[in-house]
Write a structure and sequence with these properties.
The protein has helices spanning 4-14, 18-38, 42-51, 64-75, 80-88, 102-122, 133-141, 151-161, 165-178. The chain is mainly alpha-helical. The protein has one domain (4-178): Hypothetical protein af1432, CATH 1.10.3210. The radius of gyration is 15 Å and the shape is globular.
Length: 182
């Protein structure tokens, strides 16, 4: 199912946190932009980005997230491609669901970075507008800033996705800005 209205209804059913919704919308925006850039299915990539954490509030502990959500998605008719991509974004499931496709690598590459970009934007008066890779990388070095973000996931994700880190940072920030996420 690649119907954005239905996807948003699923998000509203399971997610109450505005910050989690913002994160999911940010990842969706980045994934849609990359799908367009690479000539991929924009709705498929957007669905994966939007729904990747829909079960996190109810089941925040590994491996319940995203295993519980994957069962819900299957019950509701989502394709195995969507389910598998979402399962592959969890490092602790990499033995069962290793990232293999460009879609799976894209989700992993965008997930932590979009969270970090949101944190960067929230402390800037102009939010995402004009955010540069240099300023983001400077914040990445400050381990007390957005301390929950796994920095190594950002660099490892970009590398596995085959995009240069500076370009990846600015591409995702631009996608989020265009979508008016932050």
């Amino acid at each position: 199912m690649l119907d954005r209205t239905a996807n948003l209804q699923l998000v509203d059913e399971f997610v109450t946190s505005d910050s989690l919704k913002r994160h999911m919308l940010a990842v969706e925006a980045a994934m849609r932009a990359y799908a367009e850039r690479f000539g991929q299915d924009i709705e498929l990539w957007g669905t994966v980005g939007l729904l990747h954490d829909f079960d996190y509030e109810r089941w925040p502990d590994a491996p319940d997230h995203p295993l519980q959500g994957s069962e819900i998605l299957r019950e509701r008719g989502y394709s195995e491609e969507v389910v598998r991509a979402i399962l592959s974004h969890a490092d602790y499931l990499s033995d069962r669901y290793p990232r293999q496709t460009r879609l799976e690598h894209g989700l992993y590459a965008c997930d932590e970075l979009c969270g970090f970009l949101t944190a960067c934007a929230m402390v800037r008066p102009q939010r995402l507008e004009g955010l540069t890779a240099a300023s983001v990388k400077k914040k990445l070095k400050n381990l007390s800033f957005a301390a929950a973000v796994h920095r190594e996931d950002i660099t490892r994700g970009a590398e596995a996705f085959g995009v240069e880190l500076d370009e990846h940072i600015e591409f995702c920030a631009s996608a989020m800005h265009r979508a008016k996420i932050v």
